[in-house]
């Protein structure tokens, strides 16, 4: 069984995102970029499926500028067998990524496509769902446990107040949630080995995909600064403030 894993190069999760001064987007100048954290979990899960003998090959895919090669090398250092970069300097929205992944699925014929549940830069939570729809495949989203069972995939999903267990017919799309696993640290020798693993590059037009944006970003701005709190002397003052200042009771 072949697994395709989508890995996005995104703003590092430790970096505080700041809007550009004109509000036209997030300022990415001189900002540390890393693999989207949910995608690390997706890569880890693919490796565990390979280690368990249910997957033979893991192909990592990234869509974006040339620097996405680093993201793919990280995936390969973790254990992916090869990488595919679909290189573009244009903005690629979830629908465009889903179309590109569909084209690669048709080329590569994986049985499972693993993605993060969302990218921490755009927080769209759309790509996996759109890919499943375009392919006409079943999907297990927000996965916190995944098990191959013959021609099915058993997926436990994180839902409000607990987990939901579903069975999806293979081939299938799975988007992974935080509690699925803890990604391994990349060891130095594996970083060296990853440099020799195959990495193919395509352009969106090689795959006959139109990546034109369908959504227009209107404005990015900081959340309003929270007003400072005050200490109240007693319950009466608290009730008074809630009733007359906050007007919530
Ligand atoms: P989103 O729908 O943008 O929140 O992203 C959900 C998931 O889709 C991510 O966690 C990735 O696995 C995948 N994905 C989105 N954009 C890209 C991209 N440019 N390259 C590779 N994978 C992507």
Account of the 3D structure:
- The protein is α/β, with parallel strands linked by helices.
- The chain has a single domain (2-224), classed as Rossmann fold.
- Helix content is 27%, strand content 27%.
- The strands form two sheets. A nine-stranded mixed sheet has the order 9-8-7-10-6-1-4-5-11, with helices on both faces. The chain has a two-stranded antiparallel ribbon with strand order 2-3.
- Strand 8 and strand 9 form a beta hairpin.
- The chain is globular and about 70 Å long.
- Bound molecules: adenosine monophosphate (AMP).
- Adenosine monophosphate binds at residues 6-8, 36, 38-39, 42, 61-64, 92, 94, 97, 115-116, 118-119, 122, 124-128.
What does the secondary structure layout of this molecule look like, with pairings?
Layout: E1 2-6, E2 9-11, E3 33-35, H1 37-51, E4 57-64, H2 68-78, E5 82-87, H3 94-108, E6 112-116, H4 127-135, E7 138-149, E8 152-159, E9 162-169, E10 172-176, H5 188-194, E11 199-202, H6 235-244
Parallel strand pairs: 1-4, 1-6, 4-5, 5-11, 6-10, 7-10
Antiparallel strand pairs: 2-3, 7-8, 8-9
Helix pairs in contact: 2-5, 3-4
Bound molecules: adenosine monophosphate.
């Amino acid at each position: 069984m072949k697994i395709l894993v989508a890995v996005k190069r995104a703003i590092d999760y430790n970096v505080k995102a700041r809007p550009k001064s004109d509000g036209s987007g997030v300022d990415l100048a001189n900002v540390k970029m890393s693999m989207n954290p949910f995608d690390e979990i997706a890569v880890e899960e693919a490796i565990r499926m390979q280690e368990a003998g249910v997957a033979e090959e893991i192909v990592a895919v990234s869509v974006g500028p040339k620097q996405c090669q680093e993201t793919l090398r990280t995936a390969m250092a973790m254990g992916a067998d090869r990488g595919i970069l679909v290189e573009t300097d244009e903005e690629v929205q979830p629908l465009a990524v889903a179309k590109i992944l569909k084209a690669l699925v048709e080329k590569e014929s994986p049985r499972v496509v693993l993605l993060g549940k969302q990218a921490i830069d755009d927080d769209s939570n759309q790509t996996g769902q759109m890919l499943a729809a375009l392919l006409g495949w079943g999907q297990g989203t927000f996965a916190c446990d995944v098990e191959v069972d013959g021609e099915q995939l058993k997926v436990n999903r994180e839902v409000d107040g607990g987990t939901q267990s579903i069975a999806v017919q293979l081939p299938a799309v799975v988007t992974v949630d935080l509690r699925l696993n803890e990604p391994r640290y990349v060891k130095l020798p594996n970083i060296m080995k990853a440099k020799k693993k195959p990495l193919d590059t395509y352009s969106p037009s090689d795959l006959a995909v139109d990546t034109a944006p369908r959504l227009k970003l209107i404005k990015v701005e900081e959340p309003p600064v929270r007003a400072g709190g005050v200490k109240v002397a007693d319950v009466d003052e608290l009730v008074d403030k809630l009733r007359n200042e906050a007007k919530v009771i």
